[in-house]
Amino acid sequence: MIQDLVNYFKGKKILILGFGREGQSTYKVIREYLPEQKIFIADLKENFEINFEILKEEKNAEYISGKGYLDNLNNYDIIMKSPGISFVGVEVDKEKIKSQLELLLEFFNIFTIGVTGTKGKSTTSSLIYKVLKDQNIDTMLLGNIGIPVFDFIDDIKENQKIVLEMSSHQLEFMKNSPNISILTNIFPEHLDHYESFEKYAEAKCNIFKYQKEEDSFIYNIDNENSVNFVKDVKSNKYTVSLRDSEADVYLKDGKVYFENEVIYSKDEPRKLLGDYNLNNIMYVLVVSKILNLDLNKTIKSISEFETLPHRLEFVGKYNDISYYDNSIATIPAATIEAVKALKSVDTLIIGGMDRGVDYTDLINFLNKSVVRNIICMPITGHDIAKKITNQNTYNVENLFDAVKIAKEVTKKEGICLLSPAAASYGFFKNFEERGDMFQKYVKE
Questions:
Q1: Residues near 95 by Cβ (< 8 Å), separated by ≥ 6?
Q2: Which of 67, 89, 83 is nearest to 16 (CA)?
């Protein structure tokens, strides 16, 4: 399998576009198998190459850095694009754009389970991975979860099942789809990366667009955007719903049904709180049925699964206040679901980068909720505060001050929740750093 990939690269004029973790991973694989082939590397950062030990002795490479790094893209045969680079307003032959995930699906004869969605993809893919491992199935978890595919390219075997977390950025130009594809939901996000919301949604839909008839596709029909954009499905389609008993998998009277057979109870012990996590569990149950796994073992794995960091993560109880970190919430819907899951949030911390997202639903929800205190960080938090009518609002300039006020105003035995409903960029490197700082301030 690896030789097919090497043959694809051999003799081609290759550009590695973006030299972060995935770009460096791509470089290492090409250089290992094609030591004499010239490689072109482009990155926005000026003089980026001096920062990486990997390139110190490199002689067969050419570097392009700075503002012109996206110029002349059509001069290359293959463009190995890092996921975070946007091509909005850039003229490029899309047939040349490739990614590690694309080439994995194209050249490796393996069974793949792909998960995408605005929210829920990390939890769902990680839970599927645990279920497979617990049933002694040889598997790997790769992709957007933080592990570049090429880091483990030499370890992949034909009899494995590979679980792939797939972001819209990774899917945007793909022409291959996994054997089992899951679309958890679609909400407006990353609008700064795409020409429109429609383009973002279309990127997500590439996860099923190129499936074969024998493949399987699972999606949530409670999510209106998914229903609107899911069209022309060629594979076996499985619909999931918390409300509609016409779905293939549905919830009724606290029981989850798969094709009208009870397969799970909402009352089963689980650490994944909230209905949105029940949705994630339902996707996993469908995968278990498709693969003919032991359902009892699957349910046991679900009950044991720990919440991933910064996803409604319990930080601890300090001075009789319980703190939860939901820094992953970068859209309004995620914050609404987190408040619903915890049921009795007393203080909510919101706000972050303004990416043009509509906050009307969140504002309406909060005005009707039992949340007493809303602590608002810039930029979006300050805008939301102007439209809150029934709660105490506190405008702050940073997360440190937000935590400080939360400690003062949250009632004893109450819950303080960080669930920003906005991106962290401009204030933090990413949502993980934001969550880490929240936990640090809480514990201090």
A1: none
A2: 83
Q: Are 69 and 127 within one domain?
A: no
Domain co-membership, 68 together with 156: no
Residue range(s) defining the domain that contains residue 85: 2-98
Q: How many CB atoms lie within 10 A of CB 373?
A: 21
Question: What is the per-residue pLDDT across 424-434, written as a single tens digit (0 to 9) for each?
Answer: 988 999 999 99
End-to-end CA distance of the chain: 51
Cα 206 to the center of its chain, rounded Å: 15
Judged by phi (left if over 0) then psi (alpha if -120 to 50, else beta), residue 319 lies in: left
Sheet with 392-395, side-by-side order of all strands: 313-318, 321-325, 415-418, 345-350, 373-376, 392-395
User: What Rg value do the Cα atoms of the chain yield, rounded?
Assistant: 23
Q: Which of 283, 304, 325 is the last residue of a domain?
A: 304
CATH of the domain at 395: 3.90.190.20
Put residue 260 in one of left, alpha, beta given phi > 0 → left and psi -120 to 50 → alpha: left
CA 228 to CA 191: how far, in whole Å? Answer: 18
Q: What is the pTM of this model?
A: 0.93
Give which of 21, 17, 203 is closest to 92, Cα–Cα.
Answer: 17
| CATH number (domain holding residue 64) | 3.40.50.720
Q: Do 105 and 94 share a domain, yes or no?
A: no
Residues 316, 213: Cα–Cα separation, whole Å? 48
Residue whose entry in the numeric block shows the structure tokens 């972060």: 20
Strands (E), 327-401: 345-350, 373-376, 392-395
At 164-219, the pLDDT tens digits run 999 999 999 999 999 999 999 999 887 677 889 999 999 999 999 999 999 999 99
What are the tokens at 45? 């950062």
Residues 270 and 374 in one domain: no
Instruction: Count the helices and strands in the chain (H runs, E runs).
Output: 14, 20
Q: Quick one: 379 exposed, middle or buried, by C-beta within 10 A (0-12, 13-18, 19+)?
A: middle
Indicate the DSSP class of residue 253: T
Angstrom distance (rounded) from CA 381 to CA 259: 44
Burial 67-82 (b: 16+ CB within 10 A, else e): eebbeebeebebbbbb
Query: How many domains are contained in the chain?
Result: 3
The last residue of a domain, from among 98, 126, 149: 98
CATH assignment of the domain containing 163 = 3.40.1190.10
Indicate whether 258 and 389 sit together in one domain: no
